[in-house]
Amino acid sequence: IPGYGDSPSAEAVVTAQGRVAFLDHVLQELGMQRPVLISPSMSGRFALPFLLAQGDRLSGFVPIAPVGTKDYTAEQYRRVQTPTLILYGDRDTGLAPQALQNLQHLPEHQVVVLPGAGHACYLAKPEDFHRALLGFLRRLK
């Protein structure tokens, strides 16, 4: 993600519109048609505006305690028809409850909580994470 980790910052991704354009460009370059977007933590800054602006281009959305959920209204979330698997660890008592409170307004959502897992629940409980993810993927059209 531009501006995170060892990636150089990019002026183009300072705004939500810039982040949507960036993610759109990545998907186009990869030739992806209706992918499932998995969004852990900081990637929420990119995934959420993309979901709200172009969610119809996605087959599914899997937010894993993403940041930025409070930046949007319940009404904005209600307009999204993308099937969503809200996934988080029950030991993530900081970001996960806030994300759930906001994301639960997505009309096509289901929630899976991984017991004994923290913020990076996919690392703490990889088998449980993959079981939930694969179950979700099987139910998509």
From TrEMBL:
<dbReference type="GO" id="GO:0005737">
    <property type="term" value="C:cytoplasm"/>
</dbReference>
<protein>
    <submittedName>
        <fullName>ABHEA protein</fullName>
    </submittedName>
</protein>
<dbReference type="InterPro" id="IPR029058">
    <property type="entry name" value="AB_hydrolase_fold"/>
</dbReference>
<keyword id="KW-0963">Cytoplasm</keyword>
